[in-house]
Amino acid sequence: MDPELEAFIPLFPKSDHSDPVAARKDFAALAVSIPAPDTSDMEIEDRTVPGDPDIRVRIYRPRGAHGAIVWMHGGGWVMGNLDTEHPWAARLAAGSGAVVISVDYRLAPENPAPAALDDVYTVVTWASDNAADLGIDPTRIAVGGHSAGGGLAAGAALRARDEHGPSICFQLLSQPGLDDRLETWSARHLTDAPWMNRAKAQQLWSYYLGSGNATAYIAPGRADDLTGLPPAYIASAELCPARDEDIEYALRLLRAGVSVELHQWAGTFHGSHAILSADISQRQIAEMCAALRRAVTR
Fold it and tell me: Which intervals hold domain Alpha/beta hydrolase fold-3 (predicted)?
């Protein structure tokens, strides 16, 4: 493990996802400790996207931005909201120069799949249909997210392809949760990794799926056909149960003719980029911002 990250392990609170309500409170408390960047050079606006039900979004608009990303927070489909994601959405907008549309999708287990994916797809469609009003280029709309949010972004890209829906130019997938089967080497063997391990992954997937079955949109790792999808940047963490499913998804995209940039970050664990003082975390964030900037602002 990267020594700067390892030094923080004893300070981590014990997280228990057996009580989703308590887990959300703990997640929110951690988010408060993460500083947001300077947002004085951008407009931030809360809006409501019509849907069933309506969906709250927070739009971060840097000066002169035209490209955009519909961005989904992490939290295992169970935790997170616009406020917990604020430091990251603002950081992504500031670092990339792109408009960031942060989505407050419905959470499990109260709203199991496909509720979150439906919300995300509704927002992507809304952003495309209302590009002129939002001041963005409809040909430069990306999707992205971290962890569960990355899985939702990948699922939205698959659905948009299959339904001939909104045009998506890029996928920014940070340690995405892609496969509920948890059959890869990393999913089976990283049982004691920091923050996220096999037991927690199993529990969170069970909340998200509820009594339903996983489809390729809900668990994109199950998709048989990856042709015709947007180019992607995929980041994986060495000490993360989802590591191998992320790498395999990148390889399958490449074999399907999709352009992919894959970075497997050595010495990191799931969500460790939140330790902002670590050099490797700063590099991860800067690279994600640069990848998005290249994709939507050129």
Answer: 69-273
